[in-house]
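Worked example (supplementary).
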Amino acid sequence: KNQVEQSPQSLIILEGKNCTLQCNYTVSPFSNLRWYKQDTGRGPVSLTIMTFSENTKSNGRYTATLDADTKQSSLHITASQLSDSASYICVVILSGGYQKVTFGIGTKLQVIP
Amino acid sequence: NAGVTQTPKFQVLKTGQSMTLQCAQDMNHEYMSWYRQDPGMGLRLIHYSVGAGITDQGEVPNGYNVSRSTTEDFPLRLLSAAPSQTSVYFCASSFSRTGETPLHFGNGTRLTVT
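After joint prediction of all chains, the assembly is encoded as:
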């Protein structure tokens, strides 16, 4: 059982619509959580970072939330664009730093016209 | 600013062959790492380095060697390729090992072992 679970596994939405991706984690001790975007055939690119004390953080049309008590995070995408089609990966970094990192499998998002 | 550069982009090996995957970064990052990405699994850490001359094992190190003779370069060596090593390999670097700065990934090497 993956210690960082993402849902849904895949999602298809119409251009212009909003969507929310979920990440539940069980690993600890928690340091911070990042969301990465991975285009097909490319390496992941960091979108946001959430530390233990942060609840919400925005980066343009991307808004991440974190509930450290329930160990849940979400990534909300507003007014989706065709270029948002990608996999979105939730990454939990433990107190030991990048030596102690757990990646989720990702949610594959397809935005259609 | 090239970021993290990986070569080759694709490679096919026969079982038992050896090869080196190259990784170079031009951001003067101290932390570098190698991951493999397999279908249905999250990225898994193979080896990492916190500076020139310092390397350590990650979650799945068996069958792989690394070295870090310079800050810029962090090659990954497959000693005797096996079909189980068929995967997409990513190299990444970061200014800090603590997780406070993001990982910068290369675009990957897709390796097939027959």
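Two points are worth noting when inspecting this output. Chain A has no helices and eleven strands. Chain A touches chain B through 23 residues (CB under 8 Å).
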